[in-house]
Amino acid sequence: MTEIKACVIGLGSMGRNHARVLSDLAGVSLLGVADPSEQIRRTYRPVAGVRVFADYREMLDVVRPDYAVVATPTELHAEVACEVMTRKINVLVEKPIAKRIDEAERMIALAAKQGVLLMVGHVERFNPAVRELRRRVEASDLGRLFQLHARRLGPFPRRIADVGVILDLATHDIDAMHYVTGSRVIRAFAETARKAHKTCEDMLSGLLRFESGEIGVLDVSWLSPKKLRELWVV
Question: Domain of 150?
Fold first, then answer.
């Protein structure tokens, strides 16, 4: 079987997680990682055969991957992902897909134009519990679905400075609800607060109305001393 050639752009905590998993994944060959920070590159210990680059463009030209993981700060997602896709390379971009809607739309349009795959790291779609919930909903094993409640709480992560809880955490729950219902959000109401984060919201209470009629309830924050992850349905 031909191995898929992969590379990782950005060696922050998520980039290193991707590199670690790709190094151990059967059928995948991690050929390169890139980060502009010399300090970060010095502290990274690649496995044998993985080259480390300062410039991701040089890495793409040298290793010629089948796909690239974009794990840069959110504000760079669109710029970097589009640069990768112009070379007809498939992209897995960390969530959120971008910081602004117009950037996300530009990425999606470019992927279609170039004929490449663009995927966002919405990992809850691969959570066995969420997948089983969707299966049961589709099979009508649970009866009619009325509401979905999501709670995602935890302490403030000082490593995250460029986005708030909506783009960093609530994206998981909104996408999970979309995945389970098979429907899109048509209306949203929300209240947010900023208590610990310097520039972005760190608490969200939200209500969603889905096109198929269900109501989604969101309770997301970085103000809890303990982590809590819940998704339940009515």
Answer: 124-233
Q: Which of 68, 94, 121 is the last residue before a domain boundary?
A: 121
Same-domain check for residues 79 and 188: no
Residues 10 and 67 placed together within one structural domain of the fold: yes
**Shared domain check, 62 and 92:** yes
Mean pLDDT of 152-163: 84
Task: Calculate what percentage of the chain has a pLDDT beyond 90.
Answer: 91
pTM: 0.90
Residue 160: pLDDT over 80: no
Please check the confidence at residue 74 and state whether its pLDDT lies above 70. Answer: yes
User: Residues 143, 116: one domain?
Assistant: no
pLDDT higher than 70, residue 1: no
| CATH code of residue 93 | 3.40.50.720
Q: Which of 121, 136, 158 is the last residue of a domain?
A: 121
Can you give the three-state secondary structure of the chain, one letter per residue?
CCCEEEEEECCCHHHHHHHHHHHHCCCEEEEEEECCCHHHHHHCCCCCCCEEECCHHHHHHHHCCCEEEECCCHHHHHHHHHHHHCCCCEEEECCCCCCCHHHHHHHHHHHHHHCCCEEECCHHHHCHHHHHHHHHHHCCCCCCCCEEEEEEECCCCCCCCCCCHHHHHHHHHHHHHHHHHCCCEEEEEEEEECCCCCCCCCEEEEEEEECCCCEEEEEEECCCCCCEEEEEEC
